[in-house]
Predict the structure.
Amino acid sequence: MTILSERRSHLVASAPSRALQALPATAFVMDTGLILVSTIVAVVGRAKLDLFHDPHNIAHDANVVAPFLALGWLLMLGAMGSYRRSVFGEGTDEFKRVLNASLFAAALVGVGCYLMKFSLSRGFFLLAFIVGTVLLLVGRFLLRRALHAARVRGSLLQRAVIAGGRAQIDDVANVLRREKWLGYHLVGALVSGGVAGTETASGIPILGDADSHDDVTGLDDVDVIFFTGGSQRSAADLRKIVWELESHDTQLVMAPAMTDFAAERVRTRPVGGLPMIHMESPRYEFAGRWAKRTFDLMGSGVLILMCAPILIYAALAVKLHDRGPVFFRQTRVGKDAKEFGCFKFRTMVVNAESLVAKLQEEQGVDALLFKMRNDPRITRPGRWLRRFSIDELPQLFNVFLGDMSLVGPRPQVPREVALYDDALRRRLHVRPGMTGLWQVSGRNDLSVEESVRLDLYYVDNWSMTQDLSILARTVGAVVGSKGAY
């Protein structure tokens, strides 16, 4: 146990601080200020806008009601769990709690004024709660963005240990390392049959045996323990561990070794004290229905009209450069492996296709997702066309014709599709898109494995909300030109 204790002490000493504990207090101070601002806005707005024309002394209303309104609102936020540490940083639970607390606070103020026979200005009441609720939600959103940014930089992290089988530990660790905004600092792992002082295949220090009661409950200064599959521990043993961890202020998280499932496809239903996790079937069939097609048809039509001046200017730039063809029409593979002609502004020299094999040989890569950062085939106008993704605007006509979608996996040429394995062929279940998760996540700077993972995630977890989110994020990705070449 001496070696194990020394190993743990070293890891704990090098781990991040517990400044995360101040997050609820920070949120409370921010909420107090925003509620004060909403009250001032309500007073000024009621006086200036004269809503409902109710003959009230607004200053008197504010002096009498505002303190009770602010206090009751904050108490309701606390009662709804809006300041629990577990709600910060991820998911929609935090926003739901803030919204529900605001609605209940408004209801209590309204009912209280009615019972006390206090004639409250309706304009003041509406402005206070409408403006206040919006400010609270925006404030929590900005606080979350700041928290994510701090976590990516290595601050405000939680010390985490993963317990289970080696393969399952590595699967969970890969997700936690990839999604740095979650804020988990992996200090080690407890492996079934593991020996302290060694490492897992992914380089995580092994602190002990996941099946040893003393090794699990003897961890010091650990914020979270992830229990995954592969352990021989029974339900009764796990329950005892939960009881003992109460005094350590350590969270216990059950992490099944299943990744890349959207929250909409996961349902947890406790049955007889047993939490049953239900996984819905992949949702790619929904991506082929009329709603998405209608959205694509209307969206592409509007965008073609809006982008007409840019299309004309780009066409002239390409033509005047070398007098070659304006468009490059390449055979791509679409939904259900059907081939179509994909339109792009020509950004390369006329004989670019004949140079592919030579460049692949020089770079030592195959055809799958072949890209070069400094491709010698790209023309001068082609560089700025690619930088701002203007070269892909003619694909709006492919979307309008039904060959492509506004959002989806990027279309690939037949020689690339010929290299697909069974998993990659799932990309062909949906229409290829002008933009997708790969583009808003770094585009060509991503590895082949990461691009494939994002495409498969999109196919299996499609939703219209996700499409709208990707389209919104695409604007930032194009303006920033990250990964575009």
